[in-house]
Please model this.
Amino acid sequence: MRLALLQAPSPSGDPDLACAQAEAALASAAALGAAALVLPEVWLPGYNQPDVPARALTLDSQPLRRLATAARNSATALVVGYAERDGDRVFNSAACFGPDGSLLANYRKIQLYGPRERAFFLAGDAYVTFRLGETFTAILICYDVEFAPHVKALADRGVTVILAPTANMMPFTHVVRHTVPAMAANHGVSIAYANYCGQEGDLTYVGGSLIAGPHGEVLAQAGGHPALLIADIPPRDPARLSTQSADLRTLP
Model:
């Protein structure tokens, strides 16, 4: 599988800009043969906007319909982070539209980060898995992927690729340098981790978006500037896969 991710500054509450940037990135990813493109966390309306709950979108909103159409037109799946409104509830969510524009998955972030997220959002309570072509795939969002039990739970279900929108900010550079590759290696999964770069309000994003292979290898990684990353996920080598889940000793 060939995966792509977009690292870019926040669209800062401009849905037309957000969709236009996604459409351009999808066209480029499709031209290079990517099966899917991953955008950052809360791409709509932008992670650090002060009025995120007021700008929350339903799944049938015009911006998400536009992105579903873009996925269909490019024949490339798209994972987009967004603030989701479901009645009176608001979630930090990510939708995956398939290469035919259909909704393959809608995931709600389980591990909300910090008081701001907990003030804006309700936590999700379920994993979401789906087929992307022949690949058993799941979505985690930002802080979720730093928790080994969540990655392990997905790996134990047979997931081999995790698509992860994120909004990782300073000073947490260790996440892109060490945590994500270690999670991939320890659980035998590939992780596409799509971050912002630049500043948004009082946050400075670390960039460093990456695609890590199932043995912890960094297949592609951005610096601190806008980038479109594309990498081929290698086949899993049974001789190199972690055996932690099978070998774990549980102490009384």
Observations:
- The domain at 2-234 is CATH 3.60.110.10 (Nitrilase/N-carbamoyl-D-aminoacid amidohydrolase).
- The mean pLDDT is 97.
